[in-house]
Write a structure and sequence with these properties.
heterodimer; A: 350 residues; alpha/beta; Peroxisomal Thiolase, Chain A, domain 1; 3 domains; five-stranded mixed sheet; B: 81 residues; mainly alpha; Non-ribosomal Peptide Synthetase Peptidyl Carrier Protein, Chain A; 4 helices; 58% helix; globular; acyl carrier activity (chain B)
């Protein structure tokens, strides 16, 4: 007779136990942006809602920002690094293919030998990370999981292009997820649509950059080299109109579905925290979802710009700090971005 | 099925709702960007609302061809065809 395998013992419920944020001190306003692109403060505010964005200096890395956010989230959760069983960093701007930012961070926090890995799901990365952490804890495979959205997008933009760079900022937001006596995280929706792979994308690949650089060196053409560096370093682009349409009308349906599978309605929410892509996407989603006025809406984009995977936990952290009365209430969060990928769930605000 | 005058009137209501422009200003020869000062994001909102109102599909790649109100009215009329 074959021996029976052990499997982990599931736990019934999970929750977000702590929130943390890291915002770089360097602030870039629209006047500075207009040195690079032909635009105006008014134009940028009207079309995006953005007034400033934070950008990290050269000596502050994705992992440094993640650490700042992580330490605050651990403190609120009443935990130490050694209590963690897994560390997940959602990022598309950690500048090493390998090793992961998460392994470095786990070590810095004293979490070794916790599992550590990065998630590449762009602006949906945080919601993907929460889904993963929730599954790890509920399955019994981990007790406490740290999830961080951390981005240094300023390393991967071209200040002179007009589709996306001026929207983007740097920062990190963190949550600690652990077991709970009552349900604190709803079933997550995590999906993709690769048919629209090119609508938000790097303009070139690292291989393209390497090969063109090598060619310029061989030809000993310094001007070509300079041109190459300006043109081919991989930076982000988007098809704004297509993304806007998808983000508002498709994602509003997904947000509604997340409420439905959570078994609650918009009236039960304390907060709505969508990815901070554009204030007009946020406002249109609020309209589509017919949210009651009592629901607080994350609008951190005004000061922080679009920080990809960091935007939802940063906005959630700010809402919770500025409105302590929403502690214990439900927040609907939805992330969507390059892939295209999207993710959503309802959490109980710690 | 609506005739072109009905489509124009319906479109004018949608534009009014999105931008606050008076419906009388929305005429066939008016350019969305040049005359009505409608940006790309508002244009998408108008397109999606028009799809719903007139029960037609206006693909993303078609939107850039709709430079005047008349272009949009013709497209909707043909799509309803």
């Amino acid at each position: 007779m074959t021996a029976t395998l052990n499997q982990p013992t599931p736990v019934a419920a999970t929750q977000v136990m702590g929130l943390g944020a890291y915002r770089p001190t360097e602030i870039v306003d629209n006047e500075q942006i207009c040195q690079w692109i032909d635009s105006s403060d008014e134009w940028i505010r009207k079309r995006t809602g953005i007034q400033t964005r934070h950008r990290a200096p050269a000596d502050v890395s994705v992992t440094d920002m993640a650490e700042g956010a992580a330490r605050e989230a651990l403190e609120q959760a009443g935990l130490q690094g050694s209590d963690l069983d897994a560390v997940i960093i959602s990022t598309v701007t950690h500048p090493f293919q390998t090793p992961s930012a998460a392994a470095d961070l786990a070590h810095r926090l004293g979490a070794t030998p916790a599992a550590a890995f990065d998630v590449s799901a762009a602006c949906a990365g945080y919601c993907y990370g929460v889904a993963q952490a929730d599954a790890l804890v509920r399955s019994g495979l981990a007790e406490h999981v740290l999830v961080i959205g951390a981005e240094k997008l300023s390393d991967f933009i071209d200040n002179h292009e007009r589709t996306i760079s001026f929207l983007l900022g740097d920062g990190a937001g963190a949550v600690v997820i652990g077991p709970s006596a009552t349900p604190g995280i709803s079933p997550s929706i995590i999906r993709s649509n690769g048919e629209k792979w090119e609508t938000i994308s790097m303009e070139s690949s690292l291989l393209n950059f390497r090969d063109t650089l090598a060619e310029a060196r061989r030809a000993q053409d310094a001007s070509a080299l300079l041109d190459t560096e300006n043109r081919l370093w991989p930076t982000l682009r988007q098809e704004g109109q297509t993304v806007f349409r998808w983000a508002v009308w498709e994602m509003a349906k997904v947000a509604q579905e997340a409420l439905d599978v959570a078994g609650i309605t918009a009236d039960d929410l304390s907060a709505f925290v969508p990815h901070q892509a554009n204030i007009r996407i946020i406002d249109e989603m609020v309209k589509q979802l017919e949210l009651p006025e009592s629901v607080l809406v994350g609008r951190d984009i005004v000061d922080a710009g679009n920080t990809s995977a960091a935007s939802i936990p940063l906005a959630l952290h700010r809402l919770a700090k500025e409105n302590p009365e929403i502690s214990g209430g439900y927040a609907l969060q939805i992330g969507f971005g390059a892939g295209l990928v999207y993710g959503a769930q309802v959490i109980r605000i710690p | 099925m609506a005739d072109k005058n009905e489509i124009l009137a319906g479109l004018a209501e949608i534009v009014n709702e999105e931008t606050g422009l008076e419906t009388e200003e929305v005429q066939l020869d008016k350019s969305f960007t040049e005359d009505l000062d409608i940006d790309s994001i508002s244009m998408m909102t108008i397109v999606v609302n028009a799809e719903e109102k007139f029960d037609v599909k206006i693909p993303d790649e078609e939107v850039k061809n709709l430079s005047t109100v008349g272009d949009a009215v013709d497209f909707i009329a043909n799509a309803q065809g």
